[in-house]
Amino acid sequence: MTSAPFDVLGIGNAIVDVIARSDDAFLGQHGLVKGSMMLIDEARAEQLYDGMGPGIEVSGGSCGNTMAGIASFGGKGAYIGKVRNDQLGKVFGHDLKATGVAFDTPAATEGPATARCLILVTPDAQRTMNTYLGACTGLGPHDIDTKLVASAQVTYVEGYLWDAPAAKQAVLKAFDAARAAGRQVSITLSDSFCVHRYREEFRDLVRNKVDILFGNEAEIKALYEVETFEEALEAARKEAKIAALTRSEKGSVVIKGSETYEVPAAPVAKVVDTTGAGDLYAAGFLFGFTHGKPLAECARLGGIAAAEVISHVGARPEQPLKGLI
Prior knowledge:
It is a single chain. This protein is an alpha/beta fold. It has one domain (6-324): UDP-N-acetylmuramoyl-L-alanine:D-glutamate ligase. Helix content is 38%, strand content 22%. It has helices at residues 24-29, 42-51, 62-72, 87-98, 146-150, 165-180, 192-208, 217-224, 229-239, 277-290, 295-309, and strands at residues 6-11, 15-21, 37-39, 55-59, 77-80, 102-103, 115-121, 127-132, 152-158, 184-188, 212-216, 242-246, 252-256, 259-263. The strands form 2 sheets. A 9-stranded mixed sheet has the order 6-5-1-9-10-11-12-13-14, with helices on both faces. Strands 3-8-7-2-4 form a 5-stranded mixed sheet. Strand 12 (242-246) and strand 13 form a beta hairpin. Helix 7 (192-208) packs across helix 8 and helix 8 crosses helix 9. The protein starts with 5 loop residues before the first strand and ends in a 16-residue tail after the last helix. Residues 59-317 form the Carbohydrate kinase PfkB domain. Belongs to the carbohydrate kinase PfkB family. This is Adenosine kinase. Keywords: Kinase, Transferase.
């Protein structure tokens, strides 16, 4: 692949996670669907936060987690995302830049506060996410530096950005800039509920703009409205250039045309918190891809990163991923 100053440019919702242990009763009491991501307003965020148990605050956001993972492998990354010039915004910027990821998007000086995601982790390690997008909704085409896009081998975005019209336009501008520069683009489907909201738009992207598609079993079945993973796999084979599909403990499957690579999950002593598993899988895969690794090896690196992050609370690596390969 043609060399570039950056391996991957990530564009995503800049969010600070608040993670707390919970139980099914709390989810039921508040009408929450286990394992889902729901968008909430500021009042709902305050209500849930008041009812949650003790939590930890850590910079997150799906794409931000992926970029931190790429840096942990030793990759070169940059990030575009919107925060407010408030305390959480400073925390997010500091945490991401401390990993080695370039982050120069100007902070908003007015409007909603920096986004936060209230993550409830039940004893079965499932995470239920409630996201107040806040300042993220201010991300727009004006935040896209086309020269920065051209300086990255791959531009990677999260499907969650489709929930904000201006952010969607920002992504489309970035995709066009990447194409014009001869670079590649990638998207993660993010969440099956997100897929249901934007199915036709996502399928159009997969057919016409995207080079690498990421999704889990539920998301890819939702995208093609089929009952089995095997059906979804064959449908994706007809539309996606490369699709990397995760299946939890069953590992992952990567397809490219008629090629199929089934890669087992990396061993993990104990699953503590599944938050960030897909984000870190994408990190390992994209690190491998931008360093010229075969697709099966890219998937193996993704599995290693996912296994590390689910072994502890929090969606970013606690130990350098480059030391695990």
